[in-house]
Amino acid sequence: MAQEETTLIQVRELYKWFPIKVGLLGRKSIYVKAVDGVSLEIKKSETLGIVGESGSGKTTLGLTLMRLVNSTKGSIIFGGIDITKMKGRDLKRLRRRMQMVFQDPYASLDPRQTVRSALVEVMKIHGSIKDSKLASDKAAELVNIVGLNPDHLARFPHELSGGQRQRVAIARSLVLSPEFLLLDEPTSSLDVSVQAQILNLLQRLQTELDLTYVLISHNLAVVRHICHRTAVMYLGRIVEIGDTSQLFENPKHPYTFALLSSVPIPDPEVSQRLDVIEGDVPSPINLPSGCRFRLRCPYATDRCAAEAPLLREIEPGHSIECHYDLDLNSRPAATGAPAEGKVGAGPVGSA
Amino acid sequence: MTRSTSESPGSRSAPRQTAQAVLEIRDLKISFRTYLGEVKAVDGLNLSVSRGEIIGLVGESGCGKSVTALAIAGLLPRNADVLSGEILIDGKDLRKMSKADLRRTRLEDLAMVFQDPMTYLNPVLTVGSQITEIMLENPALNDSASITARLDEISKIEAERGKTEELGLERQILMSAGGGKLGKRDAKRLARLRTLAVLRMVRLPYPERIFKMFPHELSGGMRQRAMIAMALVRKPKLILADEITTALDVTVQAQVLALLNQLKDEIDSSIVLITHDLGVVAKVCNRVAVMYAGNIVEVAEVKALFRKPLHPYTVGLLAAIPRADVAKSELTSIPGSVPDLIAPPSGCRYHPRCPHAFAKCSDVKPILTEVEPNHWVACFLFDK
Asked: pLDDT tens across A274-323, in order?
């Protein structure tokens, strides 16, 4: 089947609920529904962006995908194999094919390990290269690939800048020549001038090494810049997914629209109405009935309270979890509010 | 609309006494003693902030923007030394003040809002009691001059916008002072009234309920609003806002930014908004100062800066930010990284990363010069 060739990861109805003990003697459990029924497909060689606010479940979804956290329900198919319940040696072998880059390179690198030993350790653990001379050569090759020079191999993390540390973390994720990288906020702890270097590096590596990425970020500008497709999460579910340009230029879910409108545009001449939605993200413990966005949604109706919408395709490759087909770009965002001066997420013309 | 005409950022050609400047910093140098050596965090900074304006102080981490704010507030840690310079608030040098005067200035003229409201709000006191405390501590609340002034103000507001119950109540309390001071109970009632007004001002819903709540009962955005209310309540001349939206989610950040924009017209305070996000600057500031490695490299009106950035660092920074509203084909990155301020580069601190650097840049430090009206830049490329 053609689909099998292009799909690298398929996620079906994935759930991850974290129990919290409450009540006298902790006998009763309530659940934080961090991931609450997510289905998606990750195509080979693409970058899928997962965006959402804090508490939306994007990191938990990532960790569940990587099998670093076990799912409560649902299945993850990686390259045609169901990895949801994989264990032991099989799981270790799987790890070679999927690697992860974390947000904070200050925390994800061992402060007492040189760059070389951090890279060689991975080869040792997985037995990919046993000869120490070859291993050392491989480490040198990797630092070169990520734009560092061989001098850096002997250094400790504290001798490197934030950007350089993140390059080391990326090099380490590439040691085993994986097919898939999960990038969890890879540039959030970096300064903008350095962020651009890392984003450019990630893009170059993707084409050179034919990698598939999932990029988790709260920074919509970063996602727009490097992702082919984007999924927007809200309280544990994907509320909109589609091609990045489609989704950013013509968002169809009111939450996506609000999220995009909230990003301050670094151009004082683009007039922008910032406060398009009110309130904060509610707690993922007591979810509202029906659609979980309805309490903040300016278009919510009785139907939204009664019936939870399901993800449905509205145009090829673009799905939303909303009962309605709203024309958001041409309507005022909040009911009764004037549309004057409002810039949606659509193509924004500078005044 | 810019509400203020910008004065020079206080360099050589600046007049000694700018009547309008709320804050004037001249040649400020700060360094930190660390076990690795002396960190030259701020290196000869000049800045002037005029009344009612919102000025953005932007830069990457370690550029000295927060240190500058802490120096203004007199909150520098013990291992920091102010080597030289003047920090004038309303013409008075904070560094030459007695402890008592400094305390009074901080109480009356200066407020600070920090990044993480949970760390700065007292978890065991209600929001209301924390805000009223500031007012009760402030002697200016309860001297006869300010009571008379406030009574006049109330009459003026009533003449302009009509009477309200709240104003009537405030007048009644103030009148009870009878030309002297307010009694303890009346002072408390007045503080409560003003706290509610300021909670309303930052658009917190149900101010009476919020007044009695503890910080942990509020969401992140509400806490930050409470912090802003705390800053506004004493009507300071200057508010230092250090990364106030960084810890918030983007939709909540947008709400706080919208609030700042609304407050702009309601308050007289000047705001120094410290941020690393150029988007935030573009949306709320009148003017912006760009910092790099302890220096201000460019100061301009916000529109001018975004339309025509002059300093190579500003140009690089603007080219390096990805945007959510338009697709950028490629990000131009700035090579290298922020220098180590224990051994900062000689001359212009940006020269090792600058694509236009020439011999002079590594020898001489450029100073801020006005190259276009109100547009100041510290770079030899614009030497005439």
From this structure: 878 887 777 778 888 899 999 889 899 999 999 999 999 999 999 999 99
Per-residue pLDDT tens for B18-69? 456 899 999 999 999 998 899 999 999 999 999 989 999 999 888 999 999 9
Say whether pLDDT at B10 is over 60: no
Mean pLDDT, range A181-196, rounded to an integer: 90
Contact B320 A195 (CB under 8 A): yes
- Going from the C-alpha of B149 to that of each of A74, A326, B143, B155, B169, the distances in angstroms are 69, 54, 10, 10, 16
Q: Which of A122, A230, A133 is nearest to A170 (CA)?
A: A122
Residue whose C-alpha is closest to residue B284's, from A239, A100, A265, A10: A265
Rounded to the nearest 5 degrees, what angle is found at the Cα of A124, between the Cα atoms of A173 and A157? 50
What angle do the packed helices B250-264 and A254-262 form, to 10 degrees? 50
Three-class DSSP category at A42: strand
Of the candidates B107, B39, B34, the residue with the CA atom closest to the CA atom of residue B74: B107
Look at the block and give the residue holding tokens 């760390």. Answer: B119
pLDDT at B359 over 90: yes
Beta-carbon count within 10 A of A273 CB: 20
For residues B116-144, average pLDDT: 86
Question: Nearest 5°: phi and psi at B66?
Answer: -70, -35
Question: pLDDT grade, residue A330 (50/70/90)?
Answer: low
B contacts of A264 (beta carbons < 8 Å) = 253-254, 257, 277, 279-280, 282-283
Lowest mean pLDDT among A2-16, B64-78, B358-372: A2-16
Amino acid at A196: A
CA angle in degrees (0–180, nearest 5) for B213-B218-B223: 105
Higher pLDDT, residue A286 or A200: A200
Strands (E), chain A: 7-22, 28-43, 47-51, 73-78, 81-82, 98-101, 180-184, 212-217, 229-234, 237-243, 312-315, 318-320
- Taking 60 as the threshold, does the pLDDT of residue B14 lie above it? no
Cα A89 versus chain centre, distance: 27
Q: Which two tokens stand for residue B275?
A: 């941020």
Q: Are B238 and B269 in contact (CB under 8 A)?
A: yes
Residue with tokens 């109540």: B169
CA distance B344 to B39: 9
**Interface predicted TM-score (ipTM):** 0.82
The Cα–Cα gap between A91 and A95 comes to 6
Q: Two tokens at B1? A: 């609309």
Quick one: closest CA in A to B281, which residue? A266
Handedness of CA A61, A66, A72, A77 (dihedral sign): positive
Collapsing DSSP states into helix, strand and coil, what is residue A117?
Answer: helix
Please check whether residue B302 touches A, CB under 8 A.
yes
What residues of chain A lie within 8 A of the CB of B318, using their CB?
Answer: 266
B34 DSSP β-pair partners: B37
pLDDT confidence of residue B384: 67
Query: Which tokens in the block code for residue A54?
Result: 């804090």
Rounded to whole angstroms, the Cα distance separating A170 from B378 reads 37
Q: What distance separates the 2 farthest-apart alpha carbons in chain A?
A: 70
- For chain B, say whether A193 makes contact (Cβ under 8 Å): yes
For residues A225 and A44, is the Cβ–Cβ distance under 8 A? no
Structure tokens at A196: 């651009």
